[in-house]
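Protocol step 4 of 5: obtain the predicted structure for the target chain.
Materials: sequence only (see below). No template structures provided, no constraints applied. The aim of this step is simply to have a reference model before the mutagenesis design in step 5. Sequence pasted as it appears in the construct record:
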Amino acid sequence: MRYLLVITLLLGAGLGAILESGAADVFLEATRPDFQKIPIAVLGFRDGQLPDNPGSRLTQVLKDDLRRSLIFSVTDPAKLGLTLDGAYGAQNVLFKQAVDNGIAVLVWGQVAARQPDLVLDGLIYDGVKQEAIASKRYVGAPPVLRQMAHRLADELVYRYTGEPGIAKTKIAFVSEQGGSRELYVMDYDGYGPRQVTADGFLSLMPRWSLDRRHIVFTTYRSRTKQDIDAIELATGKRATLVSMPGLNITPAFSPDGTDLAFASSNEGNAEIYKLSLRTKTLTRLTVNNGGDLSPAWAPSGRELAFVSDRGGSPQIYLMSVDGSNVRRLTFEGDHNAAPAWSPRGNWIAYVCRGQDRQYKLCLISPDGQKRIQITSGQGVDDSPSWSPDGRHLVFSSTAEGKSHIYMINSDGTDLERLTSGGVHHSAPAWSPA
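Step 4 output (structure tokens):
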């Protein structure tokens, strides 16, 4: 991950304009141990006489997004005596005071009504350059006010890292409400869950397509078969991709979206298959007396991690994309499952069970040389899925009794519960950026 050192020259200095980068960018590795978060303060959003205080809500959503980005260190400007005087434009005295207090970036703006929409104008001031570096305007209906804040947060992450943020991403998951388990999609911070399927039975194991338009999942819609379907989120249109006899489970799109890996008991024993979505060619990748399932693609698309009990207990294995070069990756513990390869390729997250007999989340490097456990405590932790920036994971856990969805940093810090209500939430899948 890279930190954009702010030497970029930006066109125009008028605060009302949208400024664009016009010079070369310089990046520093932000994943280095000595990387220091960028101090930032959100001064607030003026909202006049609009009902429901949209400015306050915007401020809080933006602060939370920036905190979760792990790029910025969010400072409370009030504690430093930094307050806007109500004006929208530049306030040089205030900016100098902020910079003197170590603030590198300031954000503020206003929300106004333009019936039937709201207009958000956000301004970004860079303390190093000592000038406003961007002005962004977002227009939308009142229900998408949070999305405007997410977009502004991602704009900040992109400007200072050169990489997409995660504030606009989504999480698909399984929820039981009313006796059936259906697919839902919510914002990355748990806001606005929306039901996707309504089969009245079981829809399980969702995974996103690269373009975020489709979700593949195992469906029991027929009650007698376990097919793998794809559903288009915008229209609800469905297509059955796999309908072989036996179980058809744990689908996963390849990184380029051209292949689908999955497990099937079509020939009696659970094996890993690869389906070309272009030619419909089906290739069996594993041949073994043990059960093989849960394929997870490496970001390169050249390898797969999967679970097999061929050695007597469920363990993580790796193989090349053609099924060759199979080797065992995990040796510690008697139950290791549900692998998820990180977007940067340097870690594989999985469910591990150690001597304490608790199912927790572990990370292991693909060469097996490094292994760390990142969750602890009571309850079963399951189904890890990486954020597209590789800094977070979502997973399900029964730590509080009922199964809920949680977010955690990849170093095991900042655990945050995302779901509420219902009787069961599980199998989260984080969307691409």
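Step 4 remarks: The helical segments are 54-69, 92-100, 145-161. Residues 1-29 have pLDDT under 50 and may be disordered.
Proceed to step 5.
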